[in-house]
Amino acid sequence: MTSTTSGPEGGGATELTRLTASELAARLASGEVSAVEVTRAHLDRVEAVEPAVGAFLHVDRREALEAARRADEDRAAGRAVSPLAGVPLALKDVFTTTDMPTTCGSKMLEGWVPPYDSTVAARLREAGVVILGKTNMDEFAMGSSTENSAFGATHNPWDLERVPGGSGGGSSAALAAFEAPLAIGTDTGGSIRQPAAVTGTVGVKPTYGGVSRYGLVAFSSSLDQGGPCGRTVLDAAMLHEVIAGHDPMDSTSIDAPVPGVTAAAKEGAAGDLRGVRVGVVREFSGEGYQRGVLDSFRTAVETLTELGAEVVEVSCPHFEYALGAYYLIAPSECSSNLARFDAMRYGLRVGDDGDRSTEEVMSLTREQGFGAEVKRRIMLGTYALSSGYYDAYYGQAQKVRTLVSRDFAAAFERVDVLVSPTTPTTAFRIGERADDPMAMYLADLCTIPSNLAGNAAMSVPSGLAAEDGLPVGLQIMAPAMADERLYRVGAAYEAARNAAAGGALIDRVPQLEVAR
Ligand code: GLN
């Protein structure tokens, strides 16, 4: 990516915020810039655009500059540092951090500062990555627009009237607004890939178990997966290698070497996909999909063919039922996970005035602490798990989950990766789907199967839709433990698309110098 376009505002500190993480890493390594300079430039950018974007819930200028200073010191002292040491990052507010609050976008946890760091945060710190702050999200990661945050919506930098996707809209908006070159998200049903698609950025859901869930506040434990977000495939790969790897603190963490995703991204960028078999998922196109999304997808498939890939159509007949199964499994697990917010152990406590019973305090707290969508999920999940209904709902959904996994297994006997649009539409308007849960749920139609199967998947920018000029994403899906395939194909596609379009998509994002 040639992202040195500095825009009308010109060079200096602003130019640093236009660089990719790998470009910043090279300049930091050569000593051309310091981590403190890089961090300060990003903090200034955050200050300038946050009134319009609202990507962050918490920014810690002092701590960020302190971390940058340490990275500079380590480098100067010749201590072995990670390639990303000194590069700034935006962290989704669902990972615990000892030096900043962790709210999950909920009033329930407002102001809660956890007593321990999540493994992801700890690994970022160890690598010298500079955490700028915590990003906005749908409450407890339930949603597709970030409108379910108790602390207000985040605006899509491509069009401030539109949503940045969700639940990790803050992380993706921060990337698209050039507030941070790297971000971390979590993907339970699409919350990394869907926001990436609608903000013209890259987002990866690693294989389930590839990135530790220790200190990731649980929504649906059998689906939740942290992963890297960036403006380029290579940046996401470099970040992937920092956060991935076995963690004894997470019993579902994979005990195997971290996949060589950076090498795969570099290999892919050479643009040769000969010998790679790509399956187009027949079920993910047609009715209900925006025209520009389908056009972009057709062009993407042509590009993959031109790069030498062997493209075939593949049918995954049970993907059609994945959304329905997800909306039983995820709420069921959430109803159990969120029971811990009982007014006793964490955060909010309402009505504890000595006159009320413990039960009254619990119920008042949960009534006032949770937003409407979280309550809907808890009720749905409690119902699906209740005696007499368990087999008909939860049990049935688990069977569908198995059938979806079998569809993938059959497809991956024939092809190396599957592709589809990441989302059926581009970013919708703020408020447009807020009162229609079903319309909101449909945003994750294409992303959910990979979560149910525990597979790896990526969204990579795929141009702008002709009718609204908004970003579209291409989804690439790989089998579990084959994350490197995403990076090889994603990087090849990115390079070819950038070459055809005369530059990276993200460089066409409107300038946001003027606060609204
Ligand atoms: N939008 C989906 C939901 O609301 C997925 C969320 C996620 O991946 N965290 O559940």
Describe the structure.
- Helices cover 40% and strands 12% of the residues.
- With 516 residues, the protein is of the alpha/beta class.
- The protein has one domain: Alpha-Beta Complex (Amidase signature (AS) enzymes), CATH 3.90.1300.10.
- An 11-stranded mixed sheet has the order 1-3-2-4-6-5-10-11-9-7-8, sandwiched between helices.
- Helix 5 (119-126) links the parallel strand 2 (88-92) and strand 3.
- Helix 3 packs antiparallel against helix 4 (61-76) and helix 8 (233-243) runs antiparallel to helix 9.
- The longest helix has 24 residues, at 391-414.
- Bound molecules: glutamine.
- Glutamine is lined by residues 141-144, 167, 186-191, 219, 330, 444.
- Glutamine binds at residues 141-144, 167, 186-191, 219, 330, 444.
Which ligands does the model contain, each kind named once? glutamine
Helix fraction by DSSP (H/I, runs of at least 4) = 25-40%
Tally of distinct domains = 1
Structural class: alpha/beta
Please report the total strand number as a whole number.
Answer: 11
Mean pLDDT across the residues is 95
Kindly, what is the distance between the CA atoms of the first and last residues, rounded to a whole number of angstroms?
30 Å
Which CATH class applies here? Alpha Beta
Work out the radius of gyration.
Answer: 22 Å
Sum up the overall morphology in one term: globular
The main sheet comes to: 11 strands, mixed
Strand content: 5-15%
Provide the CATH architecture. Answer: Alpha-Beta Complex
Low-confidence stretches: 1-11
Identify the strand order in the major beta sheet.
Answer: 1-3-2-4-6-5-10-11-9-7-8
CATH fold-level name: Amidase signature (AS) enzymes
Q: Count of helical segments?
A: 17
CATH superfamily: Amidase signature (AS) domain
The secondary-structure element order is: HHHEHEHEHEHEEHHEHEHHHHEHHEEH
